[in-house]
Amino acid sequence: MDWYRYRFRCVWRLAAPPEAVYAVLERAEEYPSWWPQVREVVPVDDATGTARFRSVLPYDLVVTARSLRRDPDAHVLEVGLGGDLEGWARWTLTPEGTGTRALYEQEVEVRARLLRALAVPGRPFFRVNHALMMRGGRRGLAARLRAV
Fold first, then answer.
1. Which strands make up the sheet holding 76-83, listed edge to edge?
2. Gap between the Cα atoms of 39 and 128, Å rounded
3. What pLDDT does residue 99 have?
4. What's 94's DSSP letter?
């Protein structure tokens, strides 16, 4: 087992059409206004930005995200990640009744020195930390969509 690699898969069911969900998700610079664990997003150019995350654990992750796919017709957003996490993350949105099924997938390797040093004993905590971050994001996005 590679203790530094993680695969995450999460499904959110949202009471808004895919177009509305996509419109919010494609504006990454606004994530801190609705996703509590996304502390900062700083655009670098039209396709790249840096982001700082912190969930329950007292440690900030900083990544550079580069757009790999931005497809409003297929409702897919994908980024390549570098920095403390290296890999990719993707949103795939599909209609579900009158709402949206939002599939989040991420495959990363931890590059941050401290997290690599704590890879074995910390792994269960890192997974719970990620789950709590995703729960906060789902709640924040649902509230944002209701407000729009």
1. 5-14, 99-110, 85-96, 76-83, 61-71, 48-53, 38-43
2. 18
3. 98
4. E
